[in-house]
């Protein structure tokens, strides 16, 4: 006996001809539709060429011979979805080989480098030409000014640009930032520039750390010397304390001796003589 998964049928009403409900629960039996051609409220002797709305076959809609009247079970649909997802995944053949990728990337890098070098050379040549032109114009203007002064005219005031006083200049007269940009455009890599700057920063940090360590060592030595001085003072004070106590006791005894009848520095006989 052949077994198959249960498939639910699509409900069809044989009273009104609509899909979605059964005949025993028809909400509006007077609103009829032809199951063959879809004509509303047909006559009793209506004849037509039937065409199924579910599968398009030459039979009534949701007829017993129609295979589309059964709903596909959820498990079957789930398996179909999984199979479609597996088929849609790219295979190994779809990806290019790593050698081809590395070759193409190296070619693109070499092309970009050559373009940068050519652009940098063109820019440097244009800048040098503009500098030569500006230098020639400046020399002419200075010559004109000298001629004007010789003729008795006042020489024009030549004021430098505002940015030249603030921007740092190197030995060649080019700003440092501009020179760095020119070096990068002529073929220098940004990564190398960044590495050199990082190295300089690390060297400066190491020097600062060494200076800090030296300062800490000197501070520790000073603290140790202060502790030694404090300990020596405490030791000397402890040694001198019993001598001071003995001296104080001796002074008290010398002061109290005349009161007891003896002669001492505080007795009256020493100043007025013996009493008669």
Automatic annotation (TrEMBL):
Bias (Polar residues) ranges: 266-276
Keyword Protein transport recorded: no
GO MF terms held by the record: nucleic acid binding; zinc ion binding
Comp. bias intervals (Basic residues): 106-120
Low complexity bias locations: 121-136
Ranges for region Disordered: 96-179, 257-276
Occurrences of domain CCHC-type (ranges): 13-28
Keywords: Metal-binding, Zinc, Zinc-finger
Domain of life: Eukaryota
Name by which UniProt lists this protein: CCHC-type domain-containing protein
Organism: Rhipicephalus sanguineus
């Amino acid at each position: 006996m052949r077994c198959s998964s249960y498939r639910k049928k699509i409900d069809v009403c044989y009273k009104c001809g609509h899909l979605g409900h059964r005949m025993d629960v028809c909400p509006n039996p007077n609103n009829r539709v032809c199951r063959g051609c879809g004509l509303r409220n047909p006559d009793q002797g209506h004849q037509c060429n039937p065409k199924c709305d579910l599968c398009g076959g030459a039979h009534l809609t949701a007829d017993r011979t129609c295979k589309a009247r059964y709903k596909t079970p959820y498990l079957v649909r789930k398996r179909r979805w999984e199979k479609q997802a597996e088929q849609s995944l790219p295979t190994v053949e779809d990806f290019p080989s790593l050698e081809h990728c590395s070759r193409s990337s190296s070619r693109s890098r070499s092309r970009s480098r050559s373009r940068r070098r050519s652009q940098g050379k063109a820019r440097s040549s244009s800048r040098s030409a503009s500098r030569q032109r500006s230098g020639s114009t400046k020399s002419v203007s200075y010559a004109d000014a000298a001629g004007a002064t010789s003729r008795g005219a006042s020489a024009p005031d030549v004021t430098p640009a505002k940015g030249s006083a603030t921007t740092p200049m190197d030995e060649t007269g080019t700003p440092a930032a501009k020179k760095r940009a020119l070096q990068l455009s002529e073929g220098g890599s940004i990564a190398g520039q960044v590495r050199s700057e990082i190295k300089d920063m690390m060297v400066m940090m190491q020097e600062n750390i060494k200076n800090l360590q030296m300062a800490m060592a000197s501070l520790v030595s000073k603290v140790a010397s202060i502790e030694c001085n404090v300990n020596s003072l405490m030791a000397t004070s402890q040694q001198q304390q019993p001598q001071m106590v003995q001296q104080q006791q001796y002074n008290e005894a010398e002061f109290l001796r005349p009161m007891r009848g003896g002669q001492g520095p505080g007795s009256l006989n020493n100043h007025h003589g013996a009493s008669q």
